[in-house]
Amino acid sequence: MADIETKDTEAVVAPEVVEATPVEAGATPEADPRGGRGPRGRGARGGGRERRSSSRPQRARSEFDQKMINIRRVARVIAGGRRFAFSVAIIIGNKKGKVGVGLGKAGDTTLAIDKAVRDAKKHMITVPLTKDNSIAHAVNAKYAASQIEMFPVRGRGLVAGSSVRPVLELAGITNVVAKVRSGSKNGLNNARAAIEALKSLKG
């Protein structure tokens, strides 16, 4: 009987298949131990930097509203040239009877505005208002070349022009007609004439 050669056949084992588990929604990828960064070399929030909250204290809101009449650049001639500054005229009021007009000059607009507000607070007046936020009687006043006349009109609203209107608005006055009787176009003088007229009111 012929010898039958038998060859040892190695069993072929199929490679182990590892199933990839899906990443759950909202899960964060594991951090790289080398630097704590994700697969793109960046942190979870674009660099790993956290925003710092500002430690600067917030400015308290002023009780007065303000309206700028005009701002202009002025020059002063000195030895060697000119020195420029800014002049700001401003009106402030609380719309409850208090109003003031101020003027400020400085080399910077912010400083000029602050000076104007302080000047307006220094020269603030209290206007006696009626129950319907109007004035009790007709008044007129003159300041420099500006002449202003005001009289109450029930149900008419506020009728005024130039810089007289913001003065009356910030004082909280309605149902008033104001007329600029002069031909002056100077907003600061018109506003100060309006203040003089309101000063002459009798409560």
Query: Describe the biggest sheet?
Result: 4 strands, antiparallel
Enumerate the spans where pLDDT stays under 50 for 5 or more consecutive residues.
Answer: 6-14
Number of strands: 8
* Individual helix count: 3
Helix content: 10-25%
Order of strands, widest sheet: 1-2-3-4
The CATH topology of the domain at 65-199, please? Double Stranded RNA Binding Domain
Structural classification = alpha+beta
Proportion of residues in extended strands: 25-35%
CATH class categorisation of the domain at 65-199: Alpha Beta
Q: Could you say what the CATH architecture of the domain at 65-199 is?
A: 2-Layer Sandwich
What's the average pLDDT? 80
Distance between the termini: 142 Å
Radius of gyration: 38 Å
What's the order of the H and E elements? EEEHEEEEHEH
Give an overview of the whole structure.
Strands 1-2-3-4 form a 4-stranded antiparallel beta sheet. Strands 5-6-8-7 form a 4-stranded mixed beta sheet. Helices cover 17% and strands 28% of the residues. Strand 7, helix 2 and strand 8 form a beta-alpha-beta unit. Helix 2 crosses helix 3. It has 3 helices and 8 strands. The chain has a domain of 135 residues: Double Stranded RNA Binding Domain. The longest helix has 14 residues. The chain is of the alpha+beta class. The N and C termini lie far apart (142 Å). The radius of gyration is 38 Å and the shape is flat.
Layout of strands and helices, then pairs:
Blueprint: E1 65-78, E2 81-93, E3 98-106, H1 109-122, E4 125-126, E5 139-143, E6 146-152, E7 158-159, H2 164-171, E8 176-180, H3 187-199
Parallel strand pairs: 7-8
Antiparallel strand pairs: 1-2, 2-3, 3-4, 5-6, 6-8
Helix pairs in contact: 2-3
